[in-house]
Amino acid sequence: MAEDFLRNLVQERLDSFCDSKRAELVAISEDLEPIIDYTQVLLSGGKRFRALFAYQAFAGLSQQLTPLTKDSPIIGIAAALEVFHAAALVHDDLLDQSDTRRGDPSIHKKFQALHEMHSYAGSSERFGVAGSVLVGDLMLSWSSEIFGEALLRVSNEEIEANCRTEFSKMRFEVMAGQYLDVLEENAGPTKDPSQAVARANKVILYKSAKYSLEAPLLIGASFAGADQNALRMISNFGIPLGMAFQLRDDVLGVFGDPKVTGKPAGDDLREGKRTVLVGLTLEAAPKSVGKIFEELLVSGDLDQGQVEFMRATIRESGALDKTERLIAEHSRSSIEALAALEISDSGRKELADLADAVIHRSK
């Protein structure tokens, strides 16, 4: 099924949900309208990988497919995953103090600008923080609401229970991974540098790989009624692909084109991200160069010249090439697992095409 058609159905479902929530919020107070304005903008963009992987796992393993509309339960599940992802982005941008998202101001920056535009009393920065925390929390609630509504139309109690289990596990694991990410940014300089890559791998496993790809695949497969063996094989496909997905993200966070990524060049370096790419750099760079690199990573207040020095250090240390090799290795593992998965031929092709898009993306 064409990806654009699926994306459009998910967008229609999200728009319909946002319209209903706008009415509810405005009925309480017109002052609440910025909440849904900012939410709807954030939900109008993105690659929709989570929605697409969930649907294709469902379609490839399902015994019976019916024509899709925006109100189909599987589209509701896909939409719920996208709302959850958007909520995670709101909180992630706040934690990382990232000013932009997809070329647009981050949610906390939008609330800060609202405060400044109306000359409210108090700190505009604190108002921005408060607004983004609350919007992120509200979107987490909404993702559960959409997910629950979709499962109301499931008559098989085992399928419903399995879907809820996977959804709950996803939420638990990504929060654990997010904390490990924050911890590593702050505690990383005090820990054994020889273990930096291992720590970074654990962060991306839980913060990204399992949440971004394994969980949507497992939820879609569970909704199709897949047995435990099929779910294990889905994990064998999803986890290495998710690792490749995040490693590609790490490369783009340092070397991506801002016009394409919607983020300033070297943004991950300014945010002090302790990625696998950074860990490999610190592992391989000469001691004197590594010391400067570490000091800059901790400082966060980098000018363009310092960013270029760090990018050059990453290249010259061989860390960039090694990361590309890791992406290729994880990709091969995922494709081998997909070949062994008992799934329809069309489902295998759709998942293979999505995997290729994940690995070779530029944003």
Kindly describe this structure.
There is one protein chain. By secondary structure, this protein is an all-alpha fold. The protein folds into 2 domains: about 150 residues, Orthogonal Bundle (Farnesyl Diphosphate Synthase), CATH 1.10.600; about 210 residues, Farnesyl Diphosphate Synthase (Orthogonal Bundle). It has 16 helices and 2 strands. A hairpin with a 2-residue loop joins strand 1 and strand 2. Helix 15 packs antiparallel against helix 16.
List keywords for this structure.
Farnesyl Diphosphate Synthase, two-stranded antiparallel sheet, mainly alpha, globular, 16 helices
The first-level CATH class name of the largest domain: Mainly Alpha
Percent of residues in helical segments?
A: over 70%
Second-tier CATH architecture of the largest domain: Orthogonal Bundle
Please identify the structural class as seen in this structure. mainly alpha
Count of structural domains: 2
Low-confidence stretches: none
Strand content: under 5%
Radius of gyration equals 21 Å
The largest beta-sheet arranges its strands as: 1-2
- Mean pLDDT metric: 95
What fold name stands as the CATH topology of the largest domain?
Farnesyl Diphosphate Synthase
Q: Helix and strand string, N-terminal first?
A: HHHHEEHHHHHHHHHHHH
Major sheet characteristics = 2 strands, antiparallel
Span from first to last CA?
23 Å
